[in-house]
Specification:
Blueprint: H1 3-6, H2 11-25, H3 30-40, E1 49-55, E2 61-66, H4 77-87, E3 95-99, H5 105-114, E4 118-125, E5 131-139, H6 145-167, H7 171-179, H8 182-196, E6 199-212, E7 216-219, E8 224-229, E9 235-237, E10 242-246, H9 249-278, H10 282-310, E11 311-313, E12 318-321, E13 332-333, E14 338-343, E15 348-355, E16 367-372, E17 380-387, E18 392-393, E19 399-407, E20 419-430, H11 431-447
Antiparallel strand pairs: 1-2, 1-5, 3-4, 4-5, 6-15, 6-20, 7-14, 8-10, 8-13, 9-12, 10-11, 12-14, 15-19, 16-17, 16-20, 17-19, 18-19
Length: 449
């Protein structure tokens, strides 16, 4: 304790001083120190209001605490005004007495509104004498000399504690300092190198769909217009069941015309046969009439055969796969144009649309894991059968390779048409190459090396 601090101070005041010093030394951060300053310094000298400022890196004072408040908001009218007042106070001397008469004219109205008449400004200094903080105390009565000596002494302690707290590194800074130590860096580098050598499989994730591996194409048997569908998409059928029919209205008219023409030809042939009994010359007409009958019979048989092919039937048991029936009704089709597929549900597999940008080397038998949207928590395992040689447009409009795989075990959840996401695994490599493969490819593409 300095002699100046002890001169004129009573024993209780000195006890309060020691108590405040202990509280300041035990503060864990600037906020805790500021709370002690603005709320407990009244043990040495009563005040009505107090404001605590900290000097930032640019030298500007920032309001960090106010008496009676747990936290302060920097954009309130009081905070803005008291900060302007603090900026007008000089860093010397350590303790300054102020009254409203000494205030700048622009701050007088705010002083009358926010603060009592008598102020005490205490600068907080570091070990080099630089101001690192400021405390303003305000009360209605004038400050006494014996109070100033104790207050000046405690603010030397406050400045020391504020400097120590400003230098104390946070937990992240301490961790960074430890990591920068040579031994730690060497150990981390070795651990990273070992981790990068861990063997992993190259893999790619792409959209996928459950498909039939050996589906039978059901095509239009002739030119015409699709008239009706007799089954719904993705429904099971038996061999011989009707699938779809072409519009047969034109063929029915042709069959009616051919039938009438056949009747006329037969009547003419019968008449020629009757004439042949009486006239030898009519025998030649009989042969011609019989020839026309055979011709009309052939025409009628052709039309009826065409009518029979208008309705397409299932060649075997299976599941019918096609799009929306409304997209086909009334649509003209060519002979051999595929309209639907007949699939065996026991022969389901997976079709993966692997984008060109994600392509990796794949060999037959490579593992495939399919995560269906309908059951994402129950992945299905499959093995690769084949990959397409040339990239095509996927249903999403992305240039992709078609990768087909067979399920290792069929289940009820592998319904044809279900979609999901598949992970295709390729050859083994190290973890470092797994992470650096794309950056290396991008650098080579950009540099041309």
């Amino acid at each position: 304790m300095t002699s100046s601090a002890g001169h004129g101070a009573t024993a209780p005041a000195l006890g309060d001083l020691l108590h405040l010093e202990q509280r300041a030394f035990s503060a864990l951060n600037t906020q805790a120190l500021g709370f002690t300053i603005v709320n407990e310094t009244s043990l040495l000298g009563h005040f009505r209001q107090a404001a605590f400022f900290v000097t930032g890196a640019t030298g500007a004072l920032t309001l960090c605490g106010a008496s009676g408040l747990v936290s302060v908001v920097g954009d309130t009218p009081y905070s803005v005004w008291v900060t302007q007042l603090a900026k007008t106070l000089a860093p010397q001397p350590p303790v300054q007495l102020l009254d409203i008469g000494s205030a700048p004219e622009s701050l007088v109205d705010g002083w009358q509104e926010w603060l009592p008449e008598h102020l005490l400004a205490c600068n907080l200094k570091d070990s080099e004498g630089t101001r690192i903080g400021l405390v303003i105390y305000a009360r209605d009565e004038a400050w006494q000399e014996h109070e100033l000596s104790l207050i000046a002494r405690i603010h030397e302690t406050y400045g020391y504690c504020l400097q120590a707290l400003a230098r104390t590194p946070g937990p992240w800074k301490s961790l960074a300092a430890r990591l920068l130590q040579r031994r730690t860096m060497v150990g981390a580098a070795i651990a990273l190198a070992i981790a990068l050598l861990i063997p992993v499989r190259l893999s790619a994730v792409a959209p996928a769909e459950v498909v039939a591996l050996s589906a039978v194409a059901i095509a239009s048997p002739q030119e015409g217009v699709v008239g009706a569908f007799h089954v719904q998409p993705n429904t099971p059928v038996k061999a011989g069941d009707k699938l779809f029919s072409l519009d047969d209205r034109g063929l029915e008219s042709r069959r009616a015309v051919a039938a009438r023409a056949l009747q006329t030809a037969r009547a003419d042939a019968l008449l020629a046969e009757q004439r042949a009994f009486d006239d030898a010359k009519s025998k030649g007409e009989l042969a011609a009439a019989q020839g026309r009958v055979k011709e009309k019979e052939a025409e009628l048989a052709l039309v009826e055969g065409t009518l029979e092919r208008v309705t397409v039937r299932a060649p075997a048991d299976g599941v019918i796969i096609f799009g929306d029936a409304n997209d086909w009704l009334g649509r003209p089709v060519q002979t051999g144009e595929r309209i639907m597929q007949l699939a065996d549900p026991r022969d389901a597999g997976v079709m993966v649309w692997l984008p060109v940008a994600d392509a990796i080397n794949l060999e037959p038998g490579a593992p495939i894991r399919l995560f269906l949207h309908t059951q994402p928590l129950s992945p299905l395992s499959a093995s690769l059968l084949e990959t397409s040689y040339q990239a095509v447009q996927s249903p999403a409009g992305v240039s992709s390779y078609r990768v087909r795989g067979r399920f290792e075990q069929q289940s009820a959840g592998t319904r044809i048409g279900l979609r999901g996401t598949a992970r295709v695994s390729g050859e083994w490599t190290c973890l470092g190459y797994y992470f650096l493969r794309r950056p290396i490819a991008a650098v080579r593409e950009w540099t041309g090396l």
